[in-house]
TrEMBL record, chain B:
Keyword Membrane: yes
Chain ranges passing through the membrane: 23-42
Record key words, sorted: Membrane, Transmembrane, Transmembrane helix
Gene source species: Streptomyces fuscus
Protein name: CbtB-domain containing protein
Amino acid sequence: MNSVTVRTLLVRGMLAGLGAGVLAFVFAYLVGEGPVDAAIAFEESNSHEHGGEELVSRTVQSTAGLATGVLVFGVAIGGIAALAFCFALGRVGRIGARATASFTALAGFLLLYLIPTLKYPANPPAVGNPDTIGERTILFVGMIVLSVLLGIAAVLLGRRLAPGWGNWNASITAGVAFVAVMAVTMAVLPSGDNTPKGFPANDLWEFRIASIGTQAVLWAAFGLLFGYLAERVLEPRVTRGKVSALAA
Amino acid sequence: MAQSTAAPTPTTQTLTPLPLRTIAPWAVFFGVLMLVLLYFVGAEQGATALVSGEGVHEWVHDARHLLGFPCH
């Protein structure tokens, strides 16, 4: 166990993120592009702002552009999650490499995406005033930072209570504390409502479901793929045993 | 399946935590690098801009929307 292990896990995390990004791109292309096009159609029929010549055509945006963004995002979160995995390994209870990878991916999906999204959900084109992009970006990033910090605090609280209260009670208490603090914070922070009058509610719903689905595919695929790759680094005996069992 | 007769979860006991000293340099360098990638996918030429123009924004436009970043 040395820095070579960390390097190997980091590389494999980025590769797993790339693979997960491919699946997320396919999902986003098939499920997400319809609602995006619907939103752009609404935008064009309702505003005179976004006319002008196109810098990047819609065809390129929905294929190569979408793929670039999702794949780079996949590699980046793969690297970050792999580093978090290196830290979590052997420190989050007696679970193996694959379970730790799944745990890391689930935590990443919840803390980096799903929980911040409950307050500041993904918006399709036409939803959101360009004049407030700075403020909305700060609130969105702030929400992510806050949910990560609260997540860490909840884990620390759970670990501190566990010896006296038992794992079950300590985990439930830490979880309830996380939800309570998060709920109050969300109630206090300014609203994320940017929807223009007349925007079809169903398009908004379908776009947001597509966004949640894209991120869910990405993190789920990453957790399973990285768990497989990490296990082969960390528990080679298990893998060899499986291989010989298959060969027999 | 031959392992099921041995002590419960024999493999997990071999997982010793990686020392923080060995994680830290990788975490600092690659952590920052990954955040830079996220910045370019998620926020460049939106709230702030390092590169002038709209090229980066327009290229990753659909990904930015569908991944949940505020786009414009």
